[in-house]
Amino acid sequence: MPQGRPLTIPDDGLTTRARRNAPVLAVHTGPGKGKSTAAFGMALRAWNQGFDIAVFQFVKSAKWRVGEEAAFRELGKLHDEHGVGGPVQWHKMGSGWSWTRKQGSEDDHAAAAVEGWTEITRRLAEQRHDFYVLDEFTYPLKWGWIDVDEVVSVLTSRPGTQHVVITGRDAPQALIDAADLVTEMTKVKHPMDVGRKGQKGIEW
Questions:
Q1: What is the pLDDT of residues 107-161, one digit of tens each?
Q2: Residue 38's domain is classified under what CATH number?
Q3: How many domains does the chain have?
Q4: Which domain holds residue 34?
Q5: What residue intervals traverse the membrane (predicted)?
Q6: Domain presence at residue 194
Q7: C-alpha distance from residue 163 to each of 7, 179, 193, 196 (Å)
Q8: Which residues, including other chains, have CB under 8 Å from residue 188's CB and lie 6 or more apart?
Q9: What is the value of pTM for the model shown?
């Protein structure tokens, strides 16, 4: 795509403006580091444009507070108090989805994942947000907790111009085929390979 120009122009009857404004389904997968980080970078751009941001984390424990969560919560406050950027919501399965007001449990992760996906489906139908990050969502799909075909159907038929970014290893092929943008993070080297622990400011 030299100089930002597509190699071919699709014969879809749409104008350049219509194609530019089409909603994007993105998947960040692969064994390398940076899948979630890249998704949150996209969310930061969206926030700057005034988009309504919603993050759903499907695997990380309630005790694990990533740096992006703290930053986006502050950005949400900045919007609420000064009208800068867009609103932000951050939901974590490990702490008990915030709309249920129930404490997280180690008992049934599968049921919690289904509950999260059901809420996302509802919000997509209502066009509640402009930009969704479904962080580590590939794992409930890989483990069979959530039906892949249903997810693909909901995402490809979502109304409006809602952007969705999904992260996690081993994205199912059906999701990859349905996505508009797929990036595979490939590990070349990692400090942990030589026994170094995760570092503040790098991993969290």
A1: 688 999 999 999 999 999 999 999 999 999 999 999 999 999 999 999 999 999 9
A2: 3.40.50.300
A3: 1
A4: 21-185
A5: none
A6: no
A7: 23, 11, 35, 36
A8: 32
A9: 0.88
